[in-house]
Structure prediction request, 608 residues.
Amino acid sequence: MLQHAQAPLRQGVGEGSGAEDLTRLLFDGDDRDRIHGEWRRLISGEAFAPRPGLSPAERTALSYERLRLVNDTVAGAGAEALSYDARRLAALHEWTGFVDGGLCTLASIHYNLFLGSLLDHDGYRRDLSPYTAMEHTGTFLCTELAHGNDVTSLETVAVFDRATGGFVLHTPNPGARKFMPNTSLAGGPKTAVVAARLLVDGQDQGIFLFLTPLSDAEGHLPGIRVSRLPDRTGTPVDHCLTAFDHVRLPREAMLEAAHGRLDKDGRLTSSLGNRRKRFLRSVGRVTMGKLCMSGGTLGMARAALAIAVRYAHHRRIGAPRAGERIPLAAHRSHHGRLLHSLATAYAMTLLHRAVLDRWAGHDPADPEEREDVERLIAVAKGWITWQARDITIEARERCGAQGLFPGNGIADLPLNVEGGITAEGDNLVIWVKAASEMLFAHEAGPALPPRGELTDLAFLRDLHACVERVWQTRARTALRGGPSGDPVGRWNETSGAALEMVAAHARLRAADALLAATARAASPRARFLMENVSRLFLLQELRPHTGDLLVAGHLTAGHVEALHTTTDRVIADLAPHLTTLVDAFDLPEEFLAAVPLANADYLDRFGA
Prediction:
C-alpha cells in the first residue's frame, strides 16, 4: 500500500500538471511580468546568492548594497513610479523578503515611507533626484521610545521660528528619542522624514512631517544624536535611537498638502477638522506599508513551504518492508501538515491580491470608502502575517534539525516574519481598532442558516459567514451589557468576542478570494487543484467553530462526525500534487539550487 501511495506523490511541473495555470492565478494573470517579473529576475542574479558566515554589520552592509541594485533596476524617476504603483511595490517585498529580510525592511522605508511621503506632500515641487538616485538613502522617523502604539502622543517638536520662517527640531526628553529607525552611517548619507509636533507661538498645531538631513559623507550632521540599538532577532538592520538638539530646518522642510499648510505668518490652513485627522493624513503611507509587510511575509511563507516540500521528497526513511526506504512525503502525518499550510498560503496570497485591487481601485476622495479599505488592509495585514508565522514555523519543524541551520534557507524566516507582525502597526492593536469599528459599521453573515454537504464549497463558505455573525452578535450583546460609565471595563467585556469577529471576517475574505480565483482556473487540472485547496482551507478553518454552528443549527451532528473523514479525503486527493502546488510559487531555480535542503544531494552539501 505504501508503494502505491508513493508513486504519484512526486508529480510536478509538466504537461497537464496545472502548475503554470496555478501560477497565473497566484501572480496577477496577464500582468504577471510587469508586477513580479523584474523582482524575480533580480533575485535570480549572483548578487543575491547566499553569503553565509557574515557578521551582523556585514549583513547590514550587504542589504544596503542590494538596495542600490533595486534602485538600479527601477532607474532614476522610475523610483517615483514605483512608490505610486501599489502592486509592484508590494511585489518587491514578496520577492526580496525571503532572500534578504534586511533589504525588505530598507526598501519599505526608502520607497514607501520616505519617498512616498514626499510625493504625497506636494512632492512635485521638490528636487527628488538625490533620493531617486540614492545619493541619500531615505528613512522615516515616527515612533518614539515612550510612544509606540500611542504615537499620536509623540513629543518631538518642530518650533516655528518667526525670525527665519523656518523651524527648530528638538527632542525634549529621553523618552522622545525616535525608536528603531535605520539612522546609522551604514549605507552612506541619509535623509529622514521626521514626524514632529508643530508649535506656533506655543500653540500645538498637531503632528506634521519634516524633511531632515541626517548625515553626509563626513558623518552625522550637527545636532543629530544617534546611538545604535542592540541587535534584534531576524536579519539585522542598523536600528538606532535618534534625537535632535535644536536642529534648524528651512521653511521648505515642512511637508505640506491640503490637510495642512503654513503661511509665512504662521497661520495653518487645513481641509481637515482636527489634529488627529491631520496626523493620520500625514502618515498615510503606513497603510501602504501594511500591504508591503504583508507581501514580505507572504513570500517568506511560500519559500519556506517550497523548501519543506522538496525536502519531504528528498529525505528518505525506513519503510515497513526490510531494506526499503520511502520519502517523508509518503506519510499522511507529514504531507497532511504541509497541505494544510499550503492551502492557507494560497488563501493568503489571493487575499493579498484582492485587497491590493481594492486599494488601487478605491476613490481616495470618498472618506467612507477610504476608511473601509484601510480597515480591510489592517485586517488582512494581521491575518496574513500571523498565518505566515505559523507556516514558517511548521515548515521549519518539518525539516527537523536540518531546518535549524541558516544555510538551509529556512531558520531565519520565522524571525523575519515577527518583524512584519510588529511593523506598520502592531497586529493586535490594529485589530482592536478594526473590531471597534466593525461592531456596528459592518453587518456580518447571512440572515438565514445555510444547508448543504461538507464537500459543497458554497455551503462551507456560508458556514464561515455564520461564524462571523455569531461573534458579532456576542460582541454587540457584551457591549450593550457592559458596565455603564466605565469605557475600559465595557470594552474589556466586548473585546474578546469582537476580535473573534475580526478573525472570522479575515478568514471569510480569504475564502472569497480563493473561490474567485478557483472560478478563473483555465485548465481542468488547475480547477481540480484549486477546488480541493479551497475545500481544505474551508474545512480546516471550520474545525474550531463546529460547536457554535451546531448549537445555532447550521451544522448537524452528522456534519460534525464527518468533518475529519471529509478533510482526510481531500488531503488524500491533494497529496499526489504537493510538488505541483509549490512549483506554482514560481521560485527562481537559482534560489532553490542554492538551498541545500531543496536539492536531492543535500546530504553531500551539508557542511561543505
